[in-house]
Design brief:
The protein has 3 domains: 11-139, Alpha Horseshoe (MgtE N-terminal fold), CATH 1.25.60; 153-260, CBS-domain (Roll), CATH 3.10.580.10; 283-467, Orthogonal Bundle (Tetracycline Repressor, domain 2), CATH 1.10.357.20. It has 20 helices and 6 strands. The protein has helices at residues 11-27, 31-39, 43-51, 55-62, 67-75, 79-100, 103-112, 115-121, 127-137, 144-147, 161-171, 195-200, 224-233, 254-272, 288-315, 317-322, 330-353, 362-391, 403-434, 444-467, and strands at 153-156, 179-183, 189-194, 218-219, 238-242, 248-253. The protein has a 3-stranded mixed sheet. It has a 3-stranded mixed sheet with strand order 4-5-6.
Length: 473
């Protein structure tokens, strides 16, 4: 089986090939017919194929691969299928596959086991793997230590290129990374060396002379989002992780960083949409009640907040009774406020996540967003005034009310609302971040509901001022 990633044709074509192969295997599940084809496919595709087969065929086909191939497939299986293998094979047989799997995948799987399942598996693991799994499992999941792996090669200061190559050949991990790491006798990280430089170096050349001494690294307790940002910013394949003593304890690979990025983006999206995040979220696996539970909390909160909008409208009901045409444009004022606030919030949340701004930049952010809000407010305010002349029939206005004044009410209210909403959309994520919480909590539903209340108050307050009318009947 090829361990390297294969790029053959378009992605959609490969997906179609996999689906067609699944159908053919189901129709004729003869291992001898398919073994050569399956053993030449990337592990991720084999995992997808096996999981699409009936359970008895999944186990039958899986057990026909070599232990090394099984470990590669195991890395790409869904968690529930990994656990099925543990139950089917038993801890003794499963441990042989588990030890050959990627170290990060081993830790993730081990952490998902119950204490009883962990106690059953541990006795069958080698001392080195057992200690490694227990040690790495102790790190919080949201830190560099929680996502790092130990699949890396180390070299020692003072080695020649020839000696270093021999060491890499002798004890490099099965899943070799492009980088090797140079440490001293105390395991303190001193430099990073690419395999390319090592292979092309003169055999007698000291690796101290060719290694990179000014390198990027992460601390074991560093937030995993910050680690991902470093990998993205410096375009790294992997980043070394050190402890308080500067000792190399692991690496975070680009693949692991992308997994974290997808998880964080999903979590942020759910928070912004007012959905309670789940640690493990597979849409089809959640029951109706699980979906209900994830959504109902925020909806109830927002419904209670919406009572504020109703209260404000009730206070100004006299104005609506006197100038019914104002009701036509209330959704425009509140809706555009919610949209502009959500846009600003999305920009700031993204900038905070990427480390482009910090809370200390709040004055600059407010100044920028205020100017943007003013320009947007003027643009949409003029548009709103134009809509008044297109929608409202002057003949239907009560005595003493002019169409031009109605247009000014809508235009000014819309402009003020957009400026206010833009400022709120930029400030709320900063305040939440300053409190140590996820700025994604400044969700679109929350912000839109809040801006609805202020929008109604702004709209009718401007109407009272320009039309010189009272809120009471």
């Amino acid at each position: 089986m090829q361990e390297e990633e294969l790029i053959l044709g378009e992605e959609t074509e490969r997906e179609e090939e996999v689906q067609q192969l699944i159908e053919e295997i189901r129709a004729d599940p003869d291992w001898d017919r398919w073994k050569d084809i399956l053993q030449q496919k990337p592990p991720v595709e084999v995992a997808e194929i096996l999981q699409s087969l009936p359970e008895h065929l999944f186990f039958d086909f899986f057990e026909r691969f070599s232990p090394e191939q099984q470990a590669l497939i195991f890395n790409d299986l869904d968690r529930d299928y990994q656990k099925k293998l543990l139950l089917h094979l038993g801890p003794r047989r499963f441990a042989k596959i588990f030890e050959l799997a990627d170290s990060a995948e081993r830790v993730d799987f081990f952490q998902d086991l119950t204490p009883e399942e962990q106690s059953l598996l541990l006795p069958y693991l080698s001392k080195q793997v057992r200690e490694e799994v227990i040690k790495l499992s102790a790190y919080p999941e949201d830190t560099a230590g929680g996502i790092m792996s130990t699949d890396f090669a180390t070299l020692y200061e003072g080695m020649t290129a020839q000696e270093a190559l021999e060491k890499v050949r002798r004890d490099a991990p099965r899943k070799m990374i492009y980088y090797t790491y140079v440490v001293d006798d105390d395991q303190k990280l001193k430099g990073v060396l690419t395999l390319r430089k090592l292979v092309l170096a003169n055999p007698d050349q000291k690796i101290d002379d060719i290694m990179l001494k000014d390198f990027v690294y992460a601390h074991v307790n560093e937030d995993r989002e910050e680690v991902v940002n470093k990998i993205e910013k410096y375009d790294l394949i992997a980043i070394p992780v050190v402890n308080d003593l500067g000792q190399l304890v692991g690496i975070v690979t680009y693949d692991e960083a992308m997994d974290v990025l997808r998880e964080e983006q999903t979590e942020d999206l759910e928070k912004m949409m007012g959905i309670v995040p789940e640690e493990t979220f597979e849409y089809k696996e959640l029951s109706i009640w699980d979906h209900y539970r994830r959504r109902v909390v925020w909806l109830v909160i927002l419904a209670l907040m919406a009572m504020g909008t109703a209260t404000v409208i009730r206070y100004f009901e006299g104005i609506i009774a006197k100038v019914a045409a104002l009701a036509f444009f209330l959704p425009l004022v509140t809706g555009m406020g919610g949209n502009s606030g959500s846009q600003a919030a999305a920009q700031i949340i993204r900038a905070l996540a990427l480390g482009q701004v910090t809370v200390s930049d709040w004055l600059k952010i407010v100044w920028n967003e205020a100017r943007v809000g003013i320009i947007l407010g003027i643009t949409l305010g003029l548009l709103g005034m134009g809509e008044v002349f297109l929608v409202v029939d002057p003949a239907h206005l009560g005595p003493g009310f002019e169409l031009v004044k109605i247009a000014w009410v809508v235009g000014i209210s819309l402009a003020v609302q957009i400026v206010f909403a833009t400022l709120m959309g930029s400030l709320i994520p900063l305040v939440i971040h300053a409190l140590g919480k996820d700025p994604a909590l400044a969700s679109s539903p929350f912000l839109a509901t809040l801006v609805d209340i202020t929008g109604v108050a702004i709209y009718f307050s401007v109407a009272m001022w320009l039309l010189d009318i009272s809120p009471t009947r």
